[in-house]
Design brief:
GO molecular function (chains A, B): kynureninase activity; pyridoxal phosphate binding
CATH topology of the largest domain in chain A: Aspartate Aminotransferase, domain 2
Number of strands of chain A: 15
Oligomer: homodimer
CATH architecture of the largest domain in chain A: 3-Layer(aba) Sandwich
Structural class of chain A: alpha/beta
CATH superfamily of the largest domain in chain A: Type I PLP-dependent aspartate aminotransferase-like (Major domain)
Distance between the termini of chain A: 37 Å
CATH class of the largest domain in chain A: Alpha Beta
Largest sheet of chain A: 7 strands, mixed
Shape of chain A: globular
Pathway (chains A, B): Cofactor biosynthesis; NAD(+) biosynthesis; quinolinate from L-kynurenine: step 2/3; Amino-acid degradation; L-kynurenine degradation; L-alanine and anthranilate from L-kynurenine: step 1/1
GO biological process, one term (chains A, B): L-kynurenine catabolic process
Strand order of the largest sheet of chain A: 4-10-9-8-7-5-6
Number of helices of chain A: 13
Catalytic activity (chains A, B): 3-hydroxy-L-kynurenine + H2O = 3-hydroxyanthranilate + L-alanine + H(+); L-kynurenine + H2O = anthranilate + L-alanine + H(+)
Radius of gyration of chain A: 21 Å
Subunit structure (chains A, B): Homodimer.
Chain lengths: ~400, ~400
């Protein structure tokens, strides 16, 4: 192992005493991000004003950071660009893929996908009309459901609720064998485990950066287009910064070169500054090391909770090949149990209807924290201390 | 006049000696924004982590700030929400309006519109198929071109190049008389002059915040939906935060209540923090005062430049009713002249092919700065000092 996880842990500013197992929802603050954002606000925006677009390199940032993310997801250089939200990028990838497969009308997804992906597909299908439809099957039925009617598969590799991981290579291969294109959502993959987009031959991929990549709340998304599609893909959301010559202000749209065409509007410069600081932490990280440590963390948590809390039911696959970097347990009173855990300094989250969700992010979580979290959870379950009114009042955001 | 423009000027951190006439492109840094963003990064993201969505109020921020912008654009409370970029919001407004007028297929716009609006409409038309089209006429022909084939008008009130202002009331009235819906782009209106969306009966409106509203580079956009359409409008880009119950994680999309449905993905929390600080400056500003001062500034600049620089041709209407809050002059060597001005400490910008563009933002620009800018421009034109190679090399971002 060449990765120094003691160093990566020190790169984050996490409140003392807190065990943060929710980096799969919102990553913690990289220590360097506060200064980087402050510099962006004061020296760049404040000091350079409009000239920051050139002098501070704001305009090139989406592609420059995209290249740094490319390494983590096995993408070729020049194939990833930042911008917008994951939902918007899902729409672009789907619309683009559908247009490239004009004889077919079906988007295939699964019920384990994050709902926003399904909602965006629903909105796109509605706008397209003409018999387009979204077909949703159970996660375990995806491979079999890919037939010659499917235009595009839209699958999230790792299930946001259970942490169950799809076989990206097998699904992509089957999609291609049946004449479909494969769109992958890497929301719970990028920075969580090694991804090999080029190796599996993915057509499009999208992901967010505020989870395992630690860009902060509302950090921008990314989109990947395979090099073989770079000049054929139409962005659907064809904004001026995806134009071949944005500052010519032509009245007619002409798609920009390669991945640049997937840009839409003005990039969120302050959020990108935070992301840039977060990406520095990844420079010395080997993704195989990350995966080994992630599996050690999740194995230990599963074993510990199963031994101490028999009333919780494991929802995450035991098989390493089918597991992301999170562990989930089911319990009918999951919401209250999670609130009790949070009150005791262990932050995970709850996903309806009954999932307790724990993210294990090797950059800043160690085995000692896993053991302490297991101990606290075991205490709450043994004492029944979650069974209080204040833990049962649902917050707006769960 | 009740507005204290000395106080608003002091609320901005502008480099000493600089005359900043480019607030129509990127507003300067509000002094309070640096601390507000730093607090968001350190105390909220760093200290609250995932609980910031509830504890720091991140989730409600898009509607809360939307209400503050509503006052400036004459919108009813609860009709404006923040998110995404202007281009994305143009797409949503257009798609939604088209769906509400199903018997018609034409989007009407004009050649003075910002190209990204036209590009987004082009992308939407391509996705819709079925005979939908974008019809673009000269700005002065818009009113006449609204006929019974038009489904939606998509007009930017103030021309980004010339500062020419459309008659929003007349165009909206004609659109409605002919059975069309009116979508307004307020990019160069919001915070620049009084807008009366409710009064003119606009159907949809969109705008950005990094110009006259001073939210910083890449600040989020806003969208307005008239109350009468609130429950009929479909967002087209139907993301999870526009769902009726985002945290129920239902598989089927159900649009949220009213304007909330126009939300898409996770909001850019750091950018919204900057915007929130910027909005505080507007609390004591009367929009009629703002307009009076804006016209005084632009009148003085026009008179000064015309007197001192006969080789520059005014591109902005003299008629107050037809003018926004910027002044533009044409010159074949406009690019080089603007670079010479910037080198001399007067920041405006250039828009192809020949426009020198100057924004007059009453919150922080005064008559003395207008006079100094005129003097510097006159000196450059009289001496021909713009005619140097270093002023003719085009930057990536102009």
């Amino acid at each position: 192992m060449t990765t120094d996880f003691t160093a990566t842990r020190k790169a984050f500013d996490i409140p003392a005493g807190l065990i943060y197992l929710d980096g799969n929802s919102l990553g913690p603050l990289p220590r360097a991000a506060a200064a980087r954002v402050a510099r962006c606000v004061t020296e760049e925006w404040g000091g350079m004003l409009i000239t920051g677009w050139n002098r501070a390199g704001w305009m090139d940032q989406p592609a420059r950071i995209g290249d740094r993310i490319a390494r983590l997801i096995g993408a070729e250089p020049g194939t990833v660009v930042m911008g917008d939200t994951l939902s918007i990028k899902v729409y672009q990838a789907l619309a683009s893929a559908l247009e490239m497969n004009p004889g077919r009308r079906v988007i295939l997804s699964d019920t384990g996908n994050f709902p926003s992906d399904l909602y965006m597909a629903d909105g796109l299908v509605r706008t397209l009309g003409n018999g387009y439809s979204l077909r949703t099957v159970a996660p375990e039925e995806v491979l079999e459901a890919i037939d010659e009617t499917v235009a595009v598969t839209m699958i999230t590799e790792v299930d946001y609720r259970t942490g169950r991981r799809h076989d990206m290579a097998a699904i992509t291969e089957k999609a291609h064998a049946m004449g479909a294109l494969a769109v992958w959502d890497l929301a719970h993959s990028a920075g969580a485990l090694p991804v090999d987009l080029a190796g599996v031959g993915a057509d499009f991929a999208v992901g967010c950066t505020y989870k395992y990549l630690n860009s902060g709340p509302g950090g921008p998304a990314f989109i990947y287009v395979a090099p073989r599609h770079a000049e054929a893909a139409r962005p659907a959301l064809s904004g001026w910064l995806g134009h071949e010559a944005p500052f010519a202000f032509d009245l007619a749209y002409r798609p920009g070169r390669g991945i640049e065409r997937m840009r839409v509007g003005t990039p969120p410069v302050l959020q990108l500054a935070a992301l840039e600081a977060a990406m520095d932490i990844w420079d010395g990280v080997d993704m195989a090391d990350l995966r080994a440590r992630s599996l050690a963390l999740t194995d230990r948590f599963i074993a510990g909770v199963e031994a101490a809390c028999p009333m919780l039911t494991l929802a995450t696959p035991r098989d390493h090949a089918q597991r992301g970097s999170q562990v989930s347990f089911r319990h009918a009173e999951g919401y209250a149990i999670m609130q009790a855990l949070i009150a005791a300094g262990v932050i995970g989250d709850f996903r309806a209807p009954d999932i307790l969700r724990f993210g294990f992010t090797p950059l800043y979580i160690g085995l000692d924290e896993v053991d302490r979290a297991v101990g606290i959870l075991a205490g709450i379950m043994a004492s029944g201390s979650w069974d209080r009114p204040e833990f049962k009042t649902r917050a707006k955001v769960t």
